[in-house]
Design goal:
Layout (H helix, E strand, L loop, with lengths): L2 H24 L6 H32 L1 H4 L4 H7 L4 H13 L4 H9 L4 H18 L6 H15 L4 H14 L4 E2 L3 E2 L11 E6 L5 E6 L2 H14 L15 H19 L12 E11 L3 E4 L3 E3 L3 E3 L1 H8 L3 E7 L5 E4 L8 H11 L12 E5 L14 E5 H9 L3 E4 L5 E4 L11 E2 L8 H5 L1
Parallel strand pairs: 5-9
Antiparallel strand pairs: 1-2, 3-4, 5-6, 5-7, 7-8, 9-10, 11-12, 13-14, 14-15
Helix pairs in contact: 2-5, 2-6, 4-5, 5-7, 7-8, 7-9, 8-9, 10-11, 12-14
Length: about 425
């Protein structure tokens, strides 16, 4: 199709969309059942057709580089024009898929399939092609497309469409690849491993993974060991749900792995380096003053409490920038408990002082914060696992260094209204009256 014909077609589409939007705004639902049902059908068909048009336009934008010429990604361009992240991601996937799936493209254009159903079909075909090592456009891909579209038109849910795609992939799993030779079972094929993540609008990170059976076994074993319920220091049961315990355990495993590969070659030394950008103003009299929230390199805005938590066992470099994002000052990396100092604290505390988690899962916490002049010495540090570390920084728990040069725990007022001091986990057999004597 000629470029001028395509441009004219899209001009007509834009005009029609404007007329449709005006009509929808002015429309009042009738009271008659038949008219309501007809209106429902028309609204669904119009929405489906709009999903198809969005996919086609997105595909064209990605092919001809329009977003790049505007200085942004396709996803960013879609979000700038009102698409929420999930819709933007779906439009990009469908824009790529319909170039290879003509039947799916036709159903989208006709409005007989919604964007959600079309996305489920496209994902299913891609899954089958990946698992069977078949190219898009192959006979298997075309057959899979027809089967999954049939499921969609029959009213099966997207989850059921995905299940059917996985069954087709298993039925057509090859035993031998023409290039690579024998093909391992799907469960053991490491080439199929995938990990993906995306930052949500609320600043949190959400993701998914698809791992082979060995990697999955290792992950579950590590998380299961670290996610067992642990009572609080006063003996009350663990208040966390199973999902919360698994999340805490996963973070603990990641932190333990990062410490195990220290930059100085010492097991347990801090490896993670955090780059923190602080919007600031510079005054000749007052020096540099914060002018807004700090930003992490990957996850965006972050509170001062979170920075304090990170600083305990990660190298944090602060970069102050002016209103034009030009650096004003770069601070030296925060001083950490590493090497001999950390080893001495591990020898004294043996485990997390609050819950008893292994020392390899712990950070070294500054009892008096480093930002307030706290020294990086044995008498100002103690071992805290991730969960307990968060409790100290955010939930009212306190650590104090006793006259015996061992850390003591003061529970939050919500746990113990009297906030009586308790010894570290490895010294729970001790009694306060015995120490006083």
């Amino acid at each position: 199709m000629r470029a001028d014909s395509v441009a004219h077609m899209f001009e007509k589409v834009v005009e029609a969309a404007d007329r449709l939007a005006d009509a929808v705004r002015e429309c009042e639902p009738p009271a008659d059942d038949d008219a309501l049902l007809a209106g429902l059908w028309a609204a669904v068909a119009a929405r489906n057709a709009a999903d198809g048009l969005l996919a086609r336009v997105t595909g064209e934008i990605e092919c001809n580089g329009s977003a790049k010429r505007l200085g942004m990604s396709v996803r960013e361009l879609l979000r700038r024009n009102g698409c929420v992240p999930v819709v933007a991601s779906r439009a990009i996937r469908l824009g790529r898929a319909i170039a290879h799936l003509p039947v799916l493209a036709r159903h989208l254009r006709d409005g007989s399939l919604s964007g959600e159903y079309a996305d489920a079909v496209a994902r299913g075909v891609r899954h089958v092609c990946t698992r069977t090592r078949s190219p898009l456009g192959s006979e298997l891909a075309i057959e899979t497309e027809a089967v999954l579209i049939g499921h969609a038109l029959a009213g099966r849910s997207p989850v059921e469409i995905g299940d059917r795609a996985r069954a087709i992939a298993l039925e057509n799993q090859p035993d031998v690849d023409e290039v690579d030779g024998p093909v391992p079972p799907v469960a053991e094929d490491t080439t199929l491993n995938e990990v993906s993540w995306a930052q949500r609008d609320d600043g949190r990170l959400a993701g998914s993974f698809d791992l082979d059976v060995i990697a999955g076994e290792r992950l579950i074993s590590c998380v299961d060991t670290a996610s067992r319920p642990r009572p609080l220091p006063d003996g009350t049961p663990d208040p966390r749900s199973a999902n919360q315990r698994r999340a805490d355990a996963f973070v603990q495993v990641v932190e333990a792995a990062s410490r195990a590969l220290g930059v100085d070659g010492l097991v347990g030394s801090a490896k993670t380096e955090i780059l923190l950008t602080v919007p600031a103003t510079q005054d000749e009299c007052c020096g540099i003053a914060p002018a807004g929230p700090a930003h992490l390199q990957w996850m965006g805005s972050v509170s001062d409490e979170a920075v304090s938590l990170l600083s305990c066992d990660a190298s944090v470099t602060r970069i102050a920038v002016d209103v034009d994002a030009a650096p004003i000052d770069i601070s030296p990396a925060a001083r950490l408990f590493t090497g001999r100092t950390r080893k001495a604290i591990v020898a004294r505390d043996q485990s997390c002082v609050m819950c008893g988690n292994p020392a390899s899962w712990t950070d070294v916490h500054h009892i008096l914060p480093f930002s307030q002049g706290g020294a990086t010495t044995c008498d100002n540090g103690c071992l805290l696992c991730r969960t307990c570390h968060v409790a100290v920084h955010q939930h009212g728990w306190e650590i104090v260094m006793g006259p015996d040069r061992h850390p003591w725990i003061r529970p939050s007022a919500t746990v113990d209204p009297h906030r009586e001091l308790q010894p570290a986990y490895n010294r729970r057999a001790l009694r306060l009256d015995a120490l006083a004597a």
